[in-house]
Amino acid sequence: IDGGGGKKRVEVPFLGRKAIFSIGAAEIARKTGCVVLPTFMVRDSNGFNTLIIESPLKIDQHGEVNETITKLTQSFVQRLEEYVLQYPSHYLSFLALRRFMTEQEGDSPFFN
Predict the structure, then answer these.
(1) How far is Cα 70 from Cα 12, in angstroms, rounded to an integer?
(2) What is the pLDDT of residues 34-43, one digit of tens each?
(3) Distance CA 87, CA 85 (A)
(4) Nearest 5°: CA angle at 90, between 8 and 51?
């Protein structure tokens, strides 16, 4: 959801600003009814990684399509914010990649 890929995106609040997130996973989940499990990789001070798998995001299968996709994306982003605030260094390389993709590849900027 927070990757730079995909053509369709939605703008949602993130860390006090508006940011653009891919909606591919949300579209698939809405169409198929599959479960979306937010996952986060956290590196400890010894260099070991821990994969954290959170509880599923809720999906409204019967709501209006765009509203459902936006709400699902926002649900993920709210959880992502918690990890970025707790482990900001883990997210810096992603932000650097998004900036590079904007400047060098003409991709849309992450923050609006």
Answers:
(1) 8
(2) 889 999 999 9
(3) 6
(4) 85
